[in-house]
UniProtKB/TrEMBL annotation:
It catalyses: L-valine + 2-oxoglutarate = 3-methyl-2-oxobutanoate + L-glutamate; L-isoleucine + 2-oxoglutarate = (S)-3-methyl-2-oxopentanoate + L-glutamate; L-leucine + 2-oxoglutarate = 4-methyl-2-oxopentanoate + L-glutamate. Its cofactor is pyridoxal 5'-phosphate. Pfam families: Aminotran_4. This is Branched-chain-amino-acid aminotransferase. GO terms for molecular function: L-isoleucine-2-oxoglutarate transaminase activity; L-leucine-2-oxoglutarate transaminase activity; L-valine-2-oxoglutarate transaminase activity. Its EC number is 2.6.1.42. SUPFAM superfamilies: D-aminoacid aminotransferase-like PLP-dependent enzymes. One of its GO terms (biological process) is L-leucine biosynthetic process. Belongs to the class-IV pyridoxal-phosphate-dependent aminotransferase family. The modification N6-(pyridoxal phosphate)lysine is found at K230.
Length: 423
């Protein structure tokens, strides 16, 4: 008798993907429903600080309200509540405290030059939060319903807390495993919440200084891991190295991977380089690819790529007079190393570099320290209207994004919010 066939063992990655698909397909329990949102308004709201108030630099001043929704394995999603900002009620045995079962998004609401409130591509943040949540065994979150909840929250709190034109406030949607049950297991209870926090302007006048990571600093993410999702476990392990870098006079870590020094991200931001191709001499805007799931599919990253392809490529779909002086370029998503950047600098092919993300927006890079007593002086040949040094391409892309965010141009990425205010 022939021996029975032995099934091939599934990899951990295959099991994770299978479980995520199963969670996303479940629909027997009540789903997230923004139409069921209830309102309890704060009768003792805070005072909005001035734009130059130092309290904004503490990153801990929140608006009058928060929005919360509870989910349980047995009952599904409950009705969302908009209520006064305050403590979340969780027990010391909650999974989020012990096993990093939490995911989040970073967004901003903007007060435009026309006085209107806007969100920037909120659909992308909400879709990503759904994927991040299921990646760590938390419930699926309907992106469209989450987007409606964000809009409702902004419509209530931002009329008061975002009074000045061309200003923003930081939004933090998050989901945590809040059930009181210790043990390495799929959470049976979760809490989704949305808050808004006052941030100061994050302009860096003379460009960011980056310290390239060494192998003893660890890595931010790795192939087959969870660098593509926005979960807390990606960030905590990086804070020690980041703090050390700042003590040495740098703004962020440029995270490298492996002995070859593959470039991934700058701090928690996506990273771009503009250089001339070593072989063809053609100008390229290059950034790490998404295919190996090491880096985050940043909303700003995606927007930079799409704008560059439509306005700066050799076959642009939008022709703008203000960039006719800029050489056309190819947009390239592929792996490259810190040695590639160093060689481009030494041979005169390096044009500029910048990081981008919700928090730092578009931040030009002025210097990269990659070896002891050896660094890369990144060219910065443009001074912007607000007096900041920059590369020309970063300056153009930053201007285009700001025009959309603050309503200087009409664009589908800028989603106008109808204001309600707290009643």
């Amino acid at each position: 008798m022939a021996p029975a066939a032995v099934p091939v063992a599934a990899t951990a990655s295959e099991l994770t993907v299978s479980a995520m698909k199963a969670d996303l397909a479940k629909s027997t329990k009540p789903q997230l429903d923004a139409s069921k949102l209830t309102y309890t308004f704060n009768k003792h709201g805070g005072v909005v600080p001035a734009l130059d108030d130092p309290i904004r630099r503490e990153h801990n001043s929140s608006t009058d309200h928060m929005l919360t929704v509870k989910w349980t394995e047995k009952g599904g999603w409950e009705a969302p509540q908009l209520r006064p900002y305050g403590h979340l009620d969780i027990m010391p045995t909650a999974s989020c405290i012990h096993y990093a079962t939490q995911a989040f998004e970073g967004m901003k609401a903007y007060r435009g030059v026309d006085g209107k409130l806007r969100l920037f591509r909120p659909d992308l943040n909400c879709k990503r939060m759904n994927l991040s949540s299921t990646r760590i065994a938390l419930p699926a979150i309907d992106p469209e319903q989450l987007e409606e909840l964000v809009k409702n929250f902004v419509s209530v709190d931002c009329p008061k807390w975002l009074p000045n034109a061309e200003t923003f406030i930081y939004l933090r949607p998050a989901v945590i495993a809040s059930g009181a049950a210790l043990g390495v297991q799929k959470p049976r209870e979760a809490t989704l919440f949305i808050i808004a926090v006052l941030f100061p302007p994050m302009e860096i006048m003379n460009g960011m200084r980056l310290l390239a990571s060494k192998e003893d600093m660890g890595v931010r993410a790795w192939p087959g891991g969870h660098g593509w999702s926005k979960v807390g476990a990606n960030y905590g392990p990086t804070l020690q190295a980041q703090g050390e870098a700042r003590e040495r006079g740098f703004d962020q870590i440029l995270w490298l991977l492996g002995s070859e020094g593959r470039v991934t991200e700058a701090g928690a931001s996506n990273f771009f380089v503009v250089w001339k191709n070593k072989t063809s001499g053609r100008l390229e805007l290059i950034t790490a690819p998404l295919g190996d799931k090491i880096i985050l599919d940043g909303v700003t990253r995606r927007s930079v790529i799409e704008l560059a392809k439509s306005r700066l490529s050799h076959n642009p779909t939008e022709v703008l007079k203000e960039v006719q002086h800029l050489e056309k370029l190819d947009v390239v998503e592929q792996s490259y190393t810190i040695d590639d950047i160093a060689e481009a600098y030494e041979s005169g092919r390096l044009v500029e570099a910048f990081a981008c993300g919700t928090a730092f927006f578009v931040a030009p890079i002025s210097y990269i320290q990659h070896e002891v007593e050896k660094g890369i002086e990144v060219p910065m040949n443009t001074t912007t209207a607000d007096g900041c040094k920059s590369g020309a391409y970063a300056a153009a892309i930053k201007t285009w994004l700001k025009e959309i965010m603050y309503g200087k141009v009409s664009h589908p990425w800028g989603v106008v919010i109808n204001e309600r205010g707290a009643q």
